[in-house]
Every structure is written in C-alpha cells, then in structure tokens.
Amino acid sequence: MNPFLELGIRHEIVNAITELGFEKPSPIQEKAIPVLLTGNDDFVGLAQTGTGKTAAFGLPLLEQIDFSQKHPQALILCPTRELCLQISKDLEKYAKYLDDARVVAVYGGANISDQLRQIRRGVQIVVATPGRMLDIINRNAIDFSSISYVVLDEADEMLNMGFQEDINNILSETPENKKTWLFSATMPKEVRRIAQKYMVDPVELTVGTKNTGNANIEHQYYLIKARDKYAAFKRIVDYYPEIFGIVFCRTKIETQEIAEALIKDGYNADSLHGDLSQQQRDKVMKRYRERNLQLLIATDVAARGIDVNDVTHVINFSLPDEVENYTHRSGRTARAGKTGISISLINVKELGKIRRIEKIIGKTFEKKQVPQGGEVCEKQLFAIVDKINHVSVNDDQISPYMPAIVESLQDLSKEDIIKRFASLEFNRFLDYYQNAPDLNIDARESGRGDRERGDRGRDRDRDRDRSRSASTGYTRLFINLGAVDEFSRGDMLGFICNNANIPGKSVGKIDMKGVFTFFEVQDHDVENVFQGFKAVDFNGRQVRIERSSGEDRSDRGGRSSRGGGDRYGKSHSRDRRGGSDRGRSYNKDFRDFSGKRRESKSRY
Ligand code: AMP
What we know:
The chain contains 25 helices and 21 strands. The chain is of the alpha/beta class and about 600 residues long.
C-alpha cells in the first residue's frame, strides 16, 4: 500500500503527489502528518527548507478543509513572495483532484485588485506575506471568522524581516480556537516567544538536530587573502564546470559588483537583491530556474524562499553577519534528498566565525585548497570530453554538411581531430591558467607571483578595476534602473539630466546593464545628482543612486534607506506599508525627458 495512504491521506491527494514523484514520506512528513491530521493540536516543527515541509503541513490541511464551503479556513503566512507563490502552487498541485479546492496567493508588489477579486470569488486556503495580508484585513476585504488553521512558515525568517508586529495583528483577527502550526529552521527566543504566546501545549517535532543543517550538505572553506578572493572564487567556479550555484554577498552593491565582474569575465551570472523591482526579480529568477543562468549572486533577504532544486553549490563570497543565516544560505542546496556543497571564502580573521558556525550546525567544515591552475585545466578538459560524449547530434541538420566537413578534415588522423576539438575550449583555460599563482594562504605568504590576472584571454581583474574607475574629472555612479526597465541610453541620459537638473554635457559614459546602469557625471554635479534623486520613484520603486567605487559601501548602514535600519533596501518595507517616501513617481507612460518634469503619479 502507498505509504501516504497508510498515513491517512486520501486517494485523490495521493494520486496527485504520486504524479509529482512523491513515493514515500520524507522524515518530517512521516512524523508531522499523523499529528496534524488529528486537527487537535498546536504544532511546532523545527525543519529546514527542502525537507518536504510544505507537504508536511499541506497534505493534512487539504484533508481537513471543507471544500464545499467557499470561505477561508486556513491561512499560511510566509516571509517572501517567492515562497508564497511556491507554497500556493504546491498546494494547488496536491489538490489537483479535489473538486472546488481554491487557494489564493496574497503578496506585496503585485496588483492588489486581482488578489481581492480572487478572494471575493471564494477561497478556502490563503497563502500570504504578512504586509499584504494586513493591508487586505485593513480593507475589511476578507472574513477570517472561520479560520481553523494558521500556519507560520519559516517563522524565524519572518521575524528576521521585522514582521513580528504584522503577525501579531493578523493573528488577533483569527478565531481563538484555531490551531496554529509553526515551522522554523531555527528556534531563537523570539520564535519561542511566539510559540508561547499563541499556542497551547504545542506538539514539538525536530527533524535532525536542532539548528542543524541538512545532512546532505558538505561544508567547506578556503583560506585566502582578501585581495585574492575574486581570483580564488573564479578558480573554484572553473574547477566545477557543471556548477549551478547561488553566491551570497552581504550587500546589494557587492552582489552587483560581483555579477558585473563575472559577466565581464565571460561567466553566466546575474544579481538578485532587494532593490530590484518585482518584475526584475521575476526575470532573474525565471532565467535561473530555467538554468539559463549558472550563477545567481544574491543577498540573504533576496534569496529567501528560493526553492530551486539541483543547486549544486552555495558559495559564501562573504560570510553572513548573523551566524544563523549560514543555515539559511546553505539550505538552498541539497534539496529534495540531493547532495550539495556549501563553500565559504574566508581570510584568517574569519576562522573564528567558521568555528562558531560549526558549533551551531553541529558539523565540521573541511578545509579545502584552492585548486592549482593545472588542476582546473584538467577538470575543464574532461568536462569538454564529457560534453563531446553527450552532445545530441541533429542528424537531419548536419548531414548535408558532412561530406564537406569530412573532406576538409580528411588529412587529419582521428587522434588529431579529437585533439583539435578538445583544444577549441581547452586552449582558453591553458592560456589563462599558465603561470597562475598558488592562491592558498600559506603559499601566498612566501613570495607572490601575482600574475593570475587575465580573462580567459583577457585581463579579467584589471578590466574590472579599469571599468570601475571614472574618467578624470568624472565620478562613476550607479543607478538601479537599466535595460530591463526599457531605458535606452538616450532615455537614461534624459532621465538623469531631468531629475538632477544638470546639462547633458555633464554626463559622461553611460554603461547600461540589465537591471542597473553605471554612469559618469562631472565631479561638480555629483551632489546635484544625489539631491535630484533623493525622492524619485520609477514604477513604484525607489530610484537609488550610489557611488560605484569599491570602497563606498555605505549602504551597509542604510544610507539609501531613509528611515534607516534596513540593510537590504526598502522593497519589503514598502510592501508592508504600501507607500513610498515623499517624492516624484514615474512610470513608463509618464516619463517625459523633454525638459519639463511631469509629476503625475506622485503618491502624495
Ligand atoms: P519543501 O521543503 O516543502 O520546500 O520541499 C522541497 C522539495 O522536495 C520540493 O521540490 C518538493 O516537491 C519535494 N518533496 C517534498 N516531499 C517529497 C517526497 N515525499 N518525495 C519526493 N519529493 C518530495
């Protein structure tokens, strides 16, 4: 008998999850489903993401909801839009064969009218981020009087993101006798406090040891000098030709810089951080999900809730400020029973932090050596051989050309042909890595041959530095709008001049990227740009200007976040409050670069 049936899940649901490939319950499902199916208890589950916890609470919920009724009976709160969409989609899949089951996802950054319409049409399960949920409650647009179950998913992350008060307010709108099920990867005292405040004698379950990361993750660190970090990072990436990774940085600007440098160096990378509009984030995530992106460079907050299977590596380009965040980061790999590697690039001063993380996760890190140039070349060579072995050949398309190809290669032996095909790619690595220095810290102490500075053919790092420094008399600035916002270079010039009230000749090079742009401005007009963009919105998103030089990372302290305190930008706080700061708002239709400023759509 199917083990889910044995647990008490009905046929219709089992059929749906069987189609999803669920053969047997994961450990958390095995433990939690029987408890939650009784519907009698509050519940606290300590479990990482990727353990199957959505089904652990989702299947018992579906079992207990009366789908003949059209009012909300279950509310699931979670920290991010991505997770919200993920959970609602998962539930819809599990409920595929249940008649009249309706799930609605409610999250910020999307049209609220559509969400309200869906609620009005009748819904039994609401999956929501706290800010938008509260907004809807405040509009009296939802009836929570029949809520029987509230699930707080990734409770620790919701509290980290400052949703405590919103959660309190939402819970106070739900009936006293509801059951509350809380899931969290860690159990800091704030989460414990929620459990004490809102639950009666909860059943507690832990999957794995408390605070312990997924057992399928290997934790590794590389000890390197800070100045070698980028070169070492690239070398590690090159050493894993099949890498499909998430790279964590501490700040938005760092994610952008690393992504920019990687793209320049010929890698397939992009950044994901809190300053991107929802549309931009969706685009980046779509590319990553579809594997059109190999490296996703992200901040902690932006990467929360990302549920992409098959992530092979998590790379901590910078260690997280909060040691606990390490667990969240590494949990992005080794999902759904797979294995994964979590790599940290550290300097000697950060060894203490590694030891603290080891204590928290109950695992030992393995110290790894940055691969030598020759080892990288060897790896790449065999990756090429593997590619040749597995490439799918389109006979129909290539056949007409075969006689000509064969003819032109006829003087070469089979071995020669093989050598030449392999060398096509291999030569780039040989060139790049010849004379590459040892980047391991012990080796670096004794004599540095600092010649590992060439792109696969070019001088990667110097290029990057060069591109970062502005022309004489100009300062290079960053603006969080780019080509995906449908700006041409001319649009951008107009947008800058119009807002900063500076002449076009004051603006130098404009370097448009996907989601952001670097531009040069004459030194004496820099302040005008900062002043001019102090309160400008574009499509509801705060336009942010920063100096692009590596040393200016003052967004750590929240320079751009008026109201302060939010290291990662304001996107989620806007989500919660539903408004932006005082100032100008643009959307595409209202862009007017002709000189006069149209101030339509200002929110105040
Ligand atoms: P979650 O922890 O809920 O985000 O689930 C992580 C991944 O595991 C998702 O892709 C699920 O579809 C998958 N999954 C959950 N439960 C099972 C199961 N019993 N068997 C196979 N895959 C599962």
